Amino acid sequence: MDDTAGFFRAYDDVLRRWPGKLHGVDVPTPYGTTRVQVSGREDGTPLVLLPGGGATSAAWFATAGALAPAHRIHAVDLMGDIGRSIHDGAPLRGAADLTAWLDALFDALNLDGAHLCGHSYGAWIALRYALHAPHRLGRLALLDPVNCFTGMSPRYLARALPMLLRPSAERVHSFHRWETGRDPEDPVWHAFLGSTATARRSKVVAMRRPRAPELAACTVPTLVLLAERSRAHDPRRAAAAARRLLPSARVVTLSGASHHSLPTEQPAEVSRLLREFFA
Q1: What CA–CA distance (Å, rounded) separates 104 from 54?
Q2: pLDDT at site 200
Q3: pTM flag (> 0.70)
């Protein structure tokens, strides 16, 4: 059942949880119009936040308040995914199109020198952008990144398949409970997750892992923050691979965290680590 209006009501309800002043801007790019939620210190260092797939910019509501005093936050609805970005321009065929889309966004918002932080699918996009345009970034933070250093868990993908093929609120909630071990404590976020089953997306790009030589050439200072209980991949293997492939990166495993609990349900520790790293 298509309930786009219900999804946007739930999306707006989460944004009302955002601390401090927040305003949305629509940025034209060759791929379509990108919705960016802007908040924080007006003269602060720009910080671009890319959410996980199916989470939208609203996913940063719990961590934005701690980052706002030092940063001008730009939380993005991913092109091709659910949210208020409208993919009505050039097709998204792969990573090169996503990096070109971010190039256009950085140009329009004058974001050269910005820090970049992504979660899950958004972390994969963020890493791809750092490999594409390191000169445009200050620092890079990857929250439980998928298909960056190791492959995804076949069990995770199999568990997600029914939700992707025949989405429903109950299947979304069931998948979240399986991965995190419980329902979200915040009822507004819980309602939002259920609403995503009826949201429209155009194209989530297939994630191909960067090659080892590409990663070895990365010059952007990087934090890799992994979830100890992540079911999206093996976090110990991911940590070892990140240390091997990005030897200059800081790799931290967050105790007790799951893949889907970042950044909405572990805000205090995630915010502390990001503040320290970006400072």
Answers
A1: 22
A2: 85
A3: yes
Each residue of 166-205: pLDDT tens digit? Answer: 999 999 999 999 999 999 999 999 999 999 998 988 877 8
> CA 66 to CA 54: how far, in whole Å?
23
Judge residue 72's burial from the number of C-beta atoms within 10 Å of its C-beta, 0-12 exposed, 13-18 middle, 19 or more buried: buried
Q: Which amino acid is at 264?
A: T
**Residues 208-235: b if buried by 16+ CB within 10 A, e if exposed:** ebbeeeebeebebbbbbbbbebbbbbbb
Phi, psi of 269, rounded to the nearest 5 degrees: -70, -40
Among residues 77, 79, 9, 55, which one has the least CA distance to residue 261?
55
